[in-house]
Amino acid sequence: MKIALIALGSGTLLLSCGGSTQSCSNTCSHVAATQCSGPQVQTCTADANGCLSLSAASSCPAGQSCSPDKNSCQADTCDGVAVTAGCGTWATRTSMPTAREHLGAVALGGKVYCIGGALRVNGNSGTNKVEVYDPVTDVWTTKANPPYPILDRFKIAAPGNGRVYLFRDDWTLEYDPAADTWITTKAVMPTPRQDFTVSSAGGKVYVIGGSTAPYTNGASLQVVEAYDPAANSWSSKPQIPTAVQFTAAATINTVIYVIASSSLLAFDTSTNVWSTKAPSPVSSGADLAAVAVGRKAYFWDNLNGTQFFAYDPSTNAFRALAPRPTKRFWSGSDTTDGKIYVIGGETNSGSQTAEVSSLVEQFTP
To answer: Is the pLDDT of residue 92 over 50?
Structure first.
């Protein structure tokens, strides 16, 4: 039997056996070559026919992450200094006065506003308490409550007009911190849904994805709608390419970054165009959280583990950072003065010892 290996310019190999050919669509250059998939690494292997393909992504050794510049595992460094626990530091600050989960947290004017939530793990225990944290003094204060308890399934945003907005499928609330008053007559989102994510850009709040009725295991949505506080009106935007619920988004300049399944998608609000970015180390469908600090976006999964990641658009790559000290489900989070705050939530989720938390943890990149 005659066997011939014919190389084509496209990188495809034709394996000829006795006059017949078998096509190889190689996805890598040579055996043992490596390639980054987020902070993880893939290795090039050959099958019995000599066809080359990348293995499933695997974690780098402890203290290393896959470097997109070298496409291999490299020692983690912070400002050029090698580290073993990931970049950044965590600190515990003064606890929130009212322990709760499912709260909304948003930063405005150098303070973090914590609104609503549930006072116990199970049962109808919604609260309308508003407590404000001042990182400079490490002190909490109490503000005016909204007109009714705000239990869960809502999202919160501060689009840059000095006001705070809360969104749910059946209401939109506006809070004026200067006057310490609430306005309940705001326009409701056109598409009723829950489990959506929000992010602000250009003075507007973008409501992305979500789930349909009956909201428990409802179908994921691709709907994107933008709320304009100045006009108190909504407008439709191009749908997200992948239907999502239980995800998170963060804005850098005019671009909103959203986790969709196991990929990172980007929506440029200046052009209304979606694009696909790097594979994501966390996947939508759980309790994801995200914030942006400077030119990086930070993502984590409150439910599954304590890993904490930064995404850098300039390299289109994720990097593992110092892990969160505690795992807390349904916590609230935002950033101010270059620091990230993770507040409240539920500890020991799914167990008989589950309870609401008042813990405040601060991350400094």
So the answer is: yes
58 and 94, same domain (yes or no) = no
Residue 85 has pLDDT above 90, yes or no: no
The total number of structural domains that make up the chain: 2
Q: What is the DSSP letter of 187?
A: P
Question: Mind listing the pLDDT tens digit for each residue in 272-287?
Answer: 999 999 999 999 888 9
Q: What is the pLDDT of residue 124?
A: 62
Tell me, yes or no, whether 72 and 108 share the same domain.
no
pLDDT in tens, 252-270: 999 999 999 999 999 999 9
| Domain end (from 51, 77, 103) | 77
Bond into 214 cis (ω within 30): yes
pTM of the model: 0.81
What amino acid occupies position 166?
L
The answer to whether 360 and 95 are in contact (CB under 8 A) is: yes
* Nearest by Cα to 103 from 166, 161, 163: 166
End position of a domain, from candidates 45, 77, 109: 77
Residue 177 structural domain: 89-364
Q: What are the CA-CA distances from residue 133 to residues 113, 136, 166, 277, 333 (Å)?
A: 7, 9, 18, 35, 12
